[in-house]
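Predict fold of ABC transporter permease; 659 aa.
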Amino acid sequence: MTVTASTSEPRPPLQRWLLVWALALAAVLVVFLLQDSVPWAVDYPASAVVPFADWVSALMGWIKSNLSWLTRSITAVLGVPLDFALNLLAKNFKIGHGADAYVLPRLSWVGVCAVAFIAGHAVGGRKLSLLVGGCFLYIALFGQWTSAMLTLALISIAVPFCIVTGLFAGIWAWRKPWAERLIVSPALDLMQTIPTFAYLIPMLLLFGNSPVSAMIATAIFATPPMVRATMLGLTRVPLEIGEFSDMAGCTARQKLWRVLLPSARPTLMVGVNQVIMLALNMVIIASMIGAGGLGYDVLLALRALKVGEAMEAGLAIVALAIALDRLSQAIAHKQAKGHVHRAVNPSFWRRYPNLTLAIGILVVTTLLGLFVPAFAAVPKAITFTTAPLWKAAVNWVTINFFDAIEAFRVALILNVLNPVRAFCEGFPWLGAVFLLGLAGYQLSGLRLAALVAALTVFCAVTGLWEKTMATVYLCGISAFIACLIGIPIGLMAARSDRFEKIVTPIIDTLQVLPSFCFIIPVVMLFRVGDVTAMIATIAFAVVPAIRYTNHGIRQVPPALIEAAKVSGCTPRQTFFRVQLPLALPEIMLGVNQTILMALAMIIICAMVGTRDLGQEVFIALSKADSGRGIVAGLAIAFIGIVADRLFNAWTAKARARLG
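Predicted 3D structure, encoded as tokens:
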């Protein structure tokens, strides 16, 4: 006998949500079709725009007028160590004034290169020594030494400030969970999603066009990884270690500084590595407000369309980035292995032989520079330039492949970019708020729905909806293509150790490249515009998709794979029915990071002619319009936060479903 289901039986959750989404999409479609009747629901009315930008500009003007004594004091205090570092590495010390001034030379380039070799050997052996020392020698021989040392001087002051500030902020957040939840985490999210250009505008207004402004912007931008690493490191310290220190009679201060922080040192060193790389990236961008250095060289060359000079400065940035990254990673790895037992109270040179040797070489070579000019500055006779070769190569490609490149660019614009852009810019703002709020409610409840809707509304009420959707279109299509490329590569790397060994050095190199370096080669071939921005963004954002996919597949417990094999699954079935579903949350986390990196790069691409929120920030920077720049920066940050919260909620739900 057949029993029919009762009509009062509740619908399954999936079926219910499918019906809800079908109705929601139908409602948005109706609004779009009836836009002549309800135009305010499609295009946010200009008469209802809230003048946040004017309010922010007024606030910044008041701060500049009434607190100038404070900004001048900060500039004076921070200028002392910064000037010392600049004079030590890139300039000369001048004692006295006028004709009677006595000049002490900067550190010899020979000594700095030798110290780079010694540092690499001390923490990573001969291979790392050759890599790090070779990078510094490359910078010297290709005539980029002074600019590179200006950049390094700024980093050498900004990074310790970031480490100390991040350490204390992380300790406070770890000790006070309410502070971490209500203050620190939201602040870190905002700091990490606000575009780099937006940091420059208030710094330029308050501290002027100077290296101090660049250093402060760099310090603010690069601090969040240290805060997160400190919180994570202290949380991961085993409870037994803390209990043992309590039993040993340690005070709370002794427990923190002598037990917990040393135990968390490996994680802290990972945070230091991330701080160094973010500081380098930001210092390059901060060249626009007086930082000078390699970033300024790239900027001038791009503005003058000097392909060879831009490429040479960009490669010097790459060399410096690789040297600092590999050196800090090796130090972190060495710290993770622990300390070697040393004799009690040995002499300084016995305890630190490499440091003693490095100081001795720097002193001797710098003093020699007083008498031998070749030690003081890199002789032009031994320097090389590849600028003519780069220019000739670009000209050759342009002459021989112009038709193919132009056909590809035009086809991409007409068939992909323009239709997607038209769809995004024509999407009703009220429908976007409603659909994103619905997604937040489905994934995590009313609180996430309210947050997502409020942040989306901000982009509309500030009059930036069209620019916001232009940003979403370019970021979305770039992230989508990056995932289409990155996820299959990650899957292949997870299934083949040999392929992983080939891919890993490539993505490691891509990860350390500052964002400027992705723009240079693309703009040479495709000129300015959305195509250039998209290709550069894909190259910059593809790394997380590869890395997280590979990691997710490899982290599937071996016991589950063995169980699948015992059950008679073929390797293909094991991969698609066991490994891939279990790795899906990790893969989606990679997609989330890809979107955030794409968003960060899209803003940098405002330099090559995109018409979105990045252009708003760029224009505001050129006009020193703090209100316009900060509000556009907040809109960009809110796009990132919305994407991050929705993907994190989806990932958490998937993890919970998979147990």
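Strands lie at 93-95, 102-104.
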